[in-house]
Amino acid sequence: MSRPEHAPKDHPATPRGKTGVLIANLGTPDDYSYWPMRRYLNEFLSDKRVIDYPKWKWQPILQAIILTKRPFSSGAAYKSIWNEDKGESPLMTITKDQTAAIAATMKDRFGDQVMVDFCMRYGNPSTRSKVREMVAAGCERILFFPLYPQYAGATTATANDEFFRALMDEKWQPAVRTVPAYFEHPGYIDALAKSVETAYGAMNQKPELLVVSYHGMPIRYLMEGDPYHCQCQKSTRLLKERLGWEDTQLITTFQSQFGPEEWLQPYTVEEVARLAREDGRKNIAVIAPAFSADCIETLEEINEEIKESFEEAGGETFTYIPCLNDAPDHIAALSDIISDNLRGWLD
Q1: How remote is the C-alpha of 194 from its chain's centroid?
Q2: What is the DSSP pairing of strand 250-255 with strand 175-178?
Q3: Are 218 and 261 in contact (CB under 8 A)?
Q4: Quick check: 84 pLDDT over 50?
Q5: Most Cβ neighbours (<10 Å): which of 82, 241, 278, 330?
Q6: Could you write out the DSSP letters of every residue in 289-328?
């Protein structure tokens, strides 16, 4: 707390001078019961960046059909992975751990100049609440970091949108920067490669193939200029080169398709079944580089639904390689990205 320069002696002291680092992830329901799930899904599926159909066309379908049924199925999926000890989803637990680890690194590098916190695009803690806290704490600058390695309109862009909307509420706006996609950052690629090497090193028999599964999106979005597909393909190529592998040792697939449109292919759930049924693959591993933290799409969709698809088609050994989460080399990579983006503000 300090009094502004040249202010009269009776001017109240104000907190100023800090730099905020606000980490953002997708979000999580507060609970897996019906109404918390419905609120969360309503916020998520009402986002025009996620579903870009006209409101008059989409909202009646969403409110009258999807949100009457999907909270039950999604709630059951969340229940199967829920962190009951802490009363929260794994994504929430992991994001808290990541934030604490990054905050410790920033303190080592910059002392008390940096305030590190996290927010969620959907659900709690909201972006708006965390921006307010940072401004109130005296952050004159905020670096906003969506934890999506590959850029997509439905992830990075909507997180940035919400951040900018939050700034509209502030009388005294801080200076801001946003962190761009880091799909080709050497530290990120190296951390991915090490996670594969560690997983393979612990196996008695190495998998015949590594399936590199990314979250999907409609092909139309790609044709309209979204760079996500190209960045996913480059991340896979850089991972392959870092591992020193041949093209035949890994493939890129896409998961989580939703709605009637054609999405990026091959679909992971179908491809793993085809690998077992047609190619005779009995032992595969799956990694999900688009997710910075394990969540419903990895712990339930990959490690339960997609695994079941592989095994029902004749596959025998299915290994899911966890997300990078709060692994030290991942935290180091994220911290380096943050430090690079703070240049000129803090050196």
Answers
A1: 19
A2: unpaired
A3: yes
A4: yes
A5: 330
A6: TT-SS--IIIIIIIIIIIHHHHHHTT--EEEEEPP-TT-H
Which tokens is 261 given?
Answer: 């449109």
What the block records as the tokens of 51 is: 């579903």
First to last CA, the chain: 23
24 secondary structure, DSSP code: E
Q: How far apart are CA 315 and CA 283, in angstroms?
A: 7
Cα–Cα distance measured from residue 244 to residue 146, given in angstroms and rounded to the nearest whole number: 30
Q: How far apart are CA 273 and CA 255, in angstroms?
A: 13
Residue 245 lies in a domain: yes
Q: Name the residue with tokens 């965390």.
A: 130
pLDDT at 259: 85
Q: Which helix (H) or strand (E) holds 272?
A: helix 268-277
What's the predicted TM-score (pTM) here? Answer: 0.93
- Supply the range of the domain harboring residue 215: 186-321
**Taking Cα atoms as reference points, which of 145, 218, 215, 212 lies closest to residue 181?**
145
CA–CA gap between residue 306 and residue 251 (Å, rounded):
15
CA 228 → CA 140, 202, 306, distances in Å?
Answer: 32, 32, 22
Average pLDDT of 158-175?
97
SS3 of 145, please?
A: strand
> What is the Cα–Cα distance from 220 to 262, expressed in whole angstroms?
8
Q: Does 239 fall in a domain?
A: yes
Residues in the chain: 347
Closest CA to 255 of 325, 303, 223: 303
What pLDDT, on a 0 to 100 scale, did the predictor assign at position 339?
Answer: 98
Q: Measure the CA–CA gap between 179 and 161, rounded to whole angstroms.
A: 13
Domain co-membership, 171 together with 212? no
**Residue 138 sits in a domain of what CATH number?**
3.40.50.1400
* 156, 142: one domain: yes
For the segment 26-39, the average pLDDT, to the nearest whole number, is 97
Same domain, 51 and 172: yes
pLDDT category at 306 given cuts 50, 70, 90 is very high
Q: What angle do CA 22, 27, 30 make, to 5 degrees?
A: 120
Residue 6 has pLDDT above 90, yes or no: no
Directed axis angle between helix 186-201 and helix 228-243, to 10°?
Answer: 60
